[in-house]
Amino acid sequence: MLNFGLTQLSALLAAKKISSAELTGEFLERSKSLNPDYNAFITLNEETSLAQARAADAMIAAGQAHALTGIPIAQKDIFCTKGWLTTCGSRMLSNFISPYDAHVIERFNAAGAVNIGKTNMDEFAMGSSNETSFYGPVRNPWDSTAVPGGSSGGSACAVAARMAPAATGTDTGGSIRQPAALCGISGLKPTYGLVSRYGMIAFASSLDQAGPMAKSAEDLALMLNVMTGFDARDSTSLEREPEDYTRDLEKPLEGLRIGLPKEYFVKEINDDVARAVEAAIAEYRKLGARTVEVSLPSTKLSVPVYYVLAPAEASSNLSRFDGVRYGYRAPEYTDLNDMYRKSRAQGFGAEVKRRILIGTYVLSHGYYDAYYIQAQKLRRLIAQDFIEAFKQCDIIMGPTSPTVAFNLGEKSSDPVQMYLSDAYTIAVNLAGLPAMSIPAGFGNQNRPVGLHIIGNYFAEAQMLNVAHQYQRATDWHVRMPIPLET
Ligand code: GLN
């Protein structure tokens, strides 16, 4: 049962073959036994989760169940969750019990889903390996000497290890897709503006977007149905008719035009990853799709552009953490300025400080035009590349990450190497497009490879269809790193 999809679990609950309290209890038991080794959760709160499960059982008994009622979902610790410790992976918020719920949390609560715990993450979502967390690194369930990817590494690990049937993540430059790829699960970053950012602790507001992480495309669709929707409290939330993201799952792929950007299959990509991605594309040809070469000439600029814009926005967003009203405050200080200085010096980790310094620099008088404005112009060119490419194809495919999961410690002393692990994912955030990663086999050391599927604006249902058809034809997504008996 721990390996069941959301539809199967929902059917068991509806048929009263199992209660949500029992189901939640099973996932909690597994989480409690595996978490000391994998560190996927920062907070487990058994009593609260079970109380939510009992409330869900009452909803089911009253005939008021929705698709996710009674299903345990792991929530990334970036979402403010009322009554729960909400740390964002930082010492700065290590004492913060949120007094309110993020929009995403409200939506899951309204649907009757159960919060099974808050997942570990890179500090303030800055990282690609989950090694910047104040709460220590997460380990990859396929190989505990490897990183799970980041920043949503705890969520990816929890789903891959079957500690939770599904989880939430956030993606500013790849943080849903890259950990999904490295842990062998499915993850989707929606079109910018589809999911409200209200109560989701801000990193780079023009890029941040929340999305689902689960075993299959079908499960992602059910999660997305809950997570999306207009929210007046987020000024970039889009007002659109609600969609059913499961509606196109079963469509045949006959005639689908897959664009393969020539810039993606170059020397940076490892052979093992290239082989798996090519095999996945061959499978799509068997399913009736054809491939066309497309070009994204500005894509090589996306990492440098991102590392100007994201730190600029972060330096502004993180100025709110000053030790005054909430969060960490240095125990000793001489005056107000000293209190700010010491609280921030002690509360933030090295990567966060690096980003704040870069951001402050690129926004400073005299450098603003040379860096920030220039990066904004290039951002537009990067988006334009995709608009051109989508004139020739319906969907774009490539690798999610240039390598399989790397070892813990392998890149943590070299920020540029770390930043390059998002070479394929970042352009999508700069353009505001939707994209996903699905498991597509294994590379070196038997570590998972992710296939990156990029859609046009609002093409989530189509992307999910494309992913689901592949998952019907293959079984990568049902493979498990840790047997269920343990
Ligand atoms: N790895 C990228 C970074 O460090 C992206 C992180 C994210 O998407 N939150 O900024």
Number of helices: 15
Q: What's the story with the biggest beta sheet? A: 8 strands, mixed
Looking at this structure, what is the CATH superfamily? Amidase signature (AS) domain
Number of domains: 1
The CATH class: Alpha Beta
Low-confidence stretches: none
Give average pLDDT, whole number.
97
| Total count of strands | 11
What would you call the structural class? alpha/beta
Helix content: 25-40%
Descriptive report:
This protein has helices spanning about 5-15, 20-40, 45-60, 105-110, 155-160, 175-185, 215-225, 270-285, 300-315, 335-345, 350-360, 370-390, 415-420, 425-430, 460-475, and strands spanning about 40-45, 70-75, 115-120, 165-170, 185-190, 210-215, 255-260, 290-295, 395-400, 435-440, 450-455. By secondary structure, it is α/β, with parallel strands linked by helices. It has a single domain, classed as Amidase signature (AS) enzymes (Alpha-Beta Complex). An 8-stranded mixed β-sheet has the order 4-6-5-10-11-9-7-8. The longest helix is centred in the last third of the chain and has 21 residues, at about 370-390. It is built from 15 helices and 11 strands.
